[in-house]
């Protein structure tokens, strides 16, 4: 059996003339929270469908939890939970009925079924409203119920497409903590797609960036930041004249300078001490009030990656 | 697979009963139906209700009418409400989902038809006590029992195939309705025929060997049902449904 929870090799999927997934090779260890990032139409949903054995690849292969997704798709699905693009809730049924239906689908024993449904509904703050028809609920409540459904049968691998979409900030933080705890305590592997880059940064141990079906980068958030973006220094103060900016641009470690009202943003080619730069600014008459050596965020790294790929 | 099938059937029935989220909504529809076909029509026809073999046509049409109202919702509806993909991502097999959906539509159409038959018999006996005990002849009862089941299965299999091709529930229901209309056209044309032709047909129907006709109809329905079910099974595949 493969040591990886998910392992793909040159996985590809064509839809007529469009290649939705293009030679995707990926290895994800068990117990990892893996974030799959990419712009709309990048191939994230198709990848999830391929990994769940819902679609057959046109090329390459995927092994999920030791099972080939084409030949043993049913074995994969038995062991996985999924929260897909749409929440998939039966809105004419009550919250309890929704979970009970899927508990039956997963063949959960009656005693465990009731206890587990109660545990999850209490955990997500939905127990008091379990007898309500779901159609009346807010989007956030529906999303919580859909997450509960995905975790109901204690899967060892969970696919989540935008799990915090529609949740209020408090609920989103709570869900992120739940997912982290699931991965840490129970060794559950979580494969999630998100557009929320700060969420990916906080939650994921590894991140893959996909664009036009191709995996263009994979690594930890730190690795992606370091490899795909340039450090910045933000100086708050005044007297950032053109002469000062020109002086800065002459320095070899400076890539770009931009001034915005009382802020000066200096992009550096690499991580380097900034004291000489600040001294130079002071000598040039700039009144420095505050210096912030910026940590490059994942969003910037992500955008840089996409821009470079486009070039 | 049987357990999974019954899980689907239970869920479909719950959705059916709680239409628009209210138990009353689903119940009112059934009650209107029972009032029209289980009480009003038998009251008007009296003894003829149980004695005229032409009524077999009515009991063959009834399950199709009932099934066509629900079967589109079980597949095209799931797709329209974006619940189908989550269901397909579960451990359920394609066959369990398909047979569960067909089973729920058949159980609804056939079950409600039989309930109507029973209520109609009670109605005519209560309304016309002077006629003595009014019951369907045994061969008619058997024919109603079998033909309505096969018609319900026909409607459900056809509904699945249409739903797989239709883009919305409404479109699937409209197609089912058009097909029902096509079947009913000859019956509707009957009163428009010259009087001697109509009389000839009615006389033929009254004197025909009912038993032979029933066997022929049952055989034809069995072949139709098997063909449609086989085609539905070949079409109902995960990858295809996801692509749709």
Short description:
Helix content of chain A is 37%, strand content 28%. By secondary structure, chain A is α/β, with parallel strands linked by helices. Chain A is elongated.
Q: What's the arrangement of secondary structure elements?
A:
The complex is a heterodimer of chains A (311) and B (244).
Chain A: E1 6-15, E2 18-28, E3 33-37, H1 44-51, E4 59-64, E5 67-68, H2 73-79, E6 80-83, H3 95-105, H4 110-123, H5 139-151, E7 157-161, H6 169-186, E8 189-193, H7 197-203, E9 206-211, E10 214-219, H8 221-228, E11 232-238, H9 242-249, E12 254-260, E13 263-268, H10 275-283, E14 287-294, H11 298-310
Parallel strand pairs in A: 3-8, 3-9, 6-7, 7-8
Antiparallel strand pairs in A: 1-2, 1-4, 4-5, 9-10, 11-13, 11-14, 12-13
Helix pairs in contact in A: 3-4, 8-11
Chain B: H1 2-17, H2 23-45, H3 48-51, H4 55-80, H5 84-88, H6 94-127, H7 138-165, H8 169-189, H9 195-207, H10 210-235, H11 238-243
Explain the overall architecture.
- The complex is a heterodimer of chains A (311) and B (244).
- With 311 residues, chain A is of the alpha/beta class.
- Chain A has 11 helices and 14 strands.
- Chain A has helices at residues 44-51, 73-79, 95-105, 110-123, 139-151, 169-186, 197-203, 221-228, 242-249, 275-283, 298-310, and strands at 6-15, 18-28, 33-37, 59-64, 67-68, 80-83, 157-161, 189-193, 206-211, 214-219, 232-238, 254-260, 263-268, 287-294.
- In chain A, the strands form 3 sheets. In chain A, strands 6-7-8-3-9-10 form a 6-stranded mixed sheet, sandwiched between helices. Chain A has a 4-stranded antiparallel sheet with strand order 2-1-4-5, with helices on one face. In chain A, strands 12-13-11-14 form a 4-stranded antiparallel sheet, with helices on one face.
- In chain A, a hairpin with a 2-residue loop joins β9 and β10.
- The longest helix of chain A has 18 residues, at 169-186.
- The radius of gyration of chain A is 24 Å and the shape is elongated.
- The mean pLDDT of chain A is 86.
- With 244 residues, chain B is mostly helical.
- Chain B has one domain.
- Chain B has helices at residues 2-17, 23-45, 48-51, 55-80, 84-88, 94-127, 138-165, 169-189, 195-207, 210-235, 238-243.
- Chain B is globular and about 60 Å long.
- In chain B, 38% of the residues are buried.
- The chains are: A alpha/beta (311), B mainly alpha (244).
- Chain A binds chain B through residues 49, 52-56, 73-74, 77-78, 80, 82, 84-93, 97, 101-102, 104-107, 133, 135-136, 149, 159, and chain B through 3-4, 7, 10-11, 14-15, 18-21, 81-83, 85-93, 238-239, 242-243.
């Amino acid at each position: 059996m493969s040591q990886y929870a998910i392992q793909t090799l040159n996985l590809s999927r064509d839809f007529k003339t469009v290649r939705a997934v293009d030679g995707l090779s990926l290895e994800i260890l068990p117990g990892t929270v893996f974030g799959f990032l990419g712009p709309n139409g990048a191939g994230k949903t198709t990848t999830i469908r391929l990994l769940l054995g819902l679609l057959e690849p046109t090329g390459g292969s995927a092994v999920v939890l030791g099972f080939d997704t084409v030949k043993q798709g049913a074995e994969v699905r038995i062991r996985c939970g999924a929260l897909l693009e749409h929440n998939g809730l039966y809105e004419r049924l009550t919250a309890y009925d929704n979970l009970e239906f899927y508990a039956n689908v997963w063949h959960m024993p009656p005693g465990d079924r009731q206890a587990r449904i109660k545990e999850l509904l209490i955990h997500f703050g939905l127990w008091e409203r379990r007898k309500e028809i779901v159609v009346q609920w807010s989007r956030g409540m529906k999303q919580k119920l859909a997450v509960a459904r995905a975790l109901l049968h204690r899967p060892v691998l969970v696919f989540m497409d935008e799990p915090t979409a529609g949740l209020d900030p408090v609920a989103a933080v709570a869900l992120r903590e739940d997912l982290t705890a699931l991965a840490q305590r129970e060794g559950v592997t979580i494969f999630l797609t998100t557009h929320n880059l700060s969420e990916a940064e906080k939650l994921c141990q590894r991140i893959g960036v996909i664009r036009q079906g191709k995996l263009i980068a994979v690594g930890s958030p730190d690795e992606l930041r370091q490899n795909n973006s340039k450090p910045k220094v933000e100086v708050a103060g005044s007297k950032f004249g053109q002469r000062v900016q020109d002086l800065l641009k002459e320095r070899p470690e400076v890539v770009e300078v931009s001034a915005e009202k009382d802020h000066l943003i200096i992009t550096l080619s690499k991580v380097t001490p900034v004291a000489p730069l600040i001294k130079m600014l002071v000598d040039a008459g700039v009144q420095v009030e505050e210096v912030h050596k910026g940590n490059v965020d994942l969003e910037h790294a992500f955008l840089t990656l996409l821009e470079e790929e486009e070039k | 697979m049987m357990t999974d099938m019954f899980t689907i059937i239970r869920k479909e029935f719950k959705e059916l009963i709680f239409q628009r989220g209210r138990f009353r909504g689903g119940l009112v529809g059934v009650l209107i139906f029972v009032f029209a076909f289980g009480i009003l029509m038998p009251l008007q026809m009296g003894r003829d209700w149980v004695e005229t073999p032409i009524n077999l046509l009515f009991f063959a049409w009834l399950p199709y009418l009932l099934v066509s109202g629900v079967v589109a919702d079980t597949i095209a509806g799931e797709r329209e409400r974006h619940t189908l993909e989550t269901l397909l991502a579960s451990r359920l097999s394609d066959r369990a989902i398909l047979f569960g959906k067909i089973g729920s539509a058949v159980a609804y159409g056939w079950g409600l038809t039989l309930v109507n038959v029973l209520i109609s018999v009670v109605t005519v006996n209560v309304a016309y006590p002077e006629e003595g005990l009014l019951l369907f002849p045994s061969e008619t009862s058997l024919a109603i029992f079998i033909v309505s089941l096969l018609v319900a299965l026909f409607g459900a299999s056809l509904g699945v195939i249409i739903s797989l091709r239709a883009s919305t529930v409404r479109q699937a229901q409209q197609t089912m309705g058009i097909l029902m209309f096509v079947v009913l056209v000859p019956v509707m044309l009957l009163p428009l025929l010259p009087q001697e032709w109509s009389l000839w047909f009615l006389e033929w129907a009254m004197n025909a060997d009912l038993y032979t006709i029933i066997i022929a109809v049952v055989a034809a329905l069995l072949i139709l049902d098997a063909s449609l079910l086989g085609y539905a099974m070949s079409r109902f595949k995960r990858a295809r449904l996801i692509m749709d």
